Amino acid sequence: MPESDITTNSGVHSTGQDGESATTDASTGKPIGKVADIGRDIGQYIRQQRENAKISLRQLSKLAGVSNPYLSQIERGSRKPSAEILQQIAKGLRISAEALYVQAGILDVPTGGPVADAIRADTELSERQKQVLLDVYESFRRENAAESSQEPSTVEGSDDAPAATDRHNAQ
């Protein structure tokens, strides 16, 4: 299949030899779809969080100080909000701005292993509940790491293991 380019006011639509098509910005040559996908993802996420909090679009608009039409456009994915707008929306939803920044691709996804991933992926928990669980989990991990670096290492299943357990119970 031959390659073809069609230039429009909004960009250049190309069809490659493999039959895949892509629209790029005529002035920059960057893919337009990528920004739209990110905007749609963050919009869907904001809508999900708003619905979980049982807040109407109009209520969130007032709480966040963002106009109702603009917020609606963000949720539909037709507008990509700035970091400042995301911060205002996070405040209105009472979730961390970091959660919105990660969803929008502004920040990298924090790491933490399978437990942290499971907490973040749980749709039944609010962002606030997730953050509290992650904070508690991390504090336990730090505490255990500090304790293990201060104690002599013991081989699991050896005769020393009960003594180590007794020492912990005495503290």
From TrEMBL:
CDD domains, per the entry: HTH_XRE
Organism from which the protein derives: Haloechinothrix halophila YIM 93223
Ranges for domain HTH cro/C1-type: 46-100
Name of the protein described by the UniProt record: Putative transcriptional regulator
Pfam families: HTH_3
Sequence ranges of Polar residues compositional bias: 1-27, 146-156
One cellular component term from this protein's GO annotations in UniProt: cytosol
UniProt-listed SUPFAM superfamilies: lambda repressor-like DNA-binding domains
MF terms in GO: DNA binding; DNA-binding transcription factor activity
Keyword Transcription recorded: no
Superkingdom of origin organism: Bacteria
Region (Disordered): 1-35, 143-171
Keywords, sorted A to Z: DNA-binding
InterPro entries xref list: Cro/C1-type_HTH, Lambda_DNA-bd_dom_sf, TransReg_Diox_bact_type
